[in-house]
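To: structure subgroup
Subject: Chain for Friday's discussion

All,

I'm putting the inputs and outputs inline so they're searchable in the archive.
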Amino acid sequence: GPNGMTLYTFDKDTAGSGSSVCNGPCASNWPPLMAADTDQAQGDYTVVIRDDGKKQWALKGKPLYYWAKDTKPGDTTGDGFLKIWHTAKP
């Protein structure tokens, strides 16, 4: 992410659906990579709308998230979590 932290995708999100299924407690553990209201899609990066109406970045249609337990740039402790969370690959 822009802060140097690893970004992840969630297998339960459907690519191209335009939304995220990780909300509430899920989003506390997997904070979304938020997009500003003025941000525009570019290349493989698009913007999806969250349940609360806020915008989130997506890569190839899959919403992007941080993992709350990663503590420093380069950490990838969320990769493979429950076999449904994966490091985002451009």
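Points worth raising on Friday:
The chain has a mean pLDDT of 97.
The first strand starts at residue 8 and ends at 10.

D.
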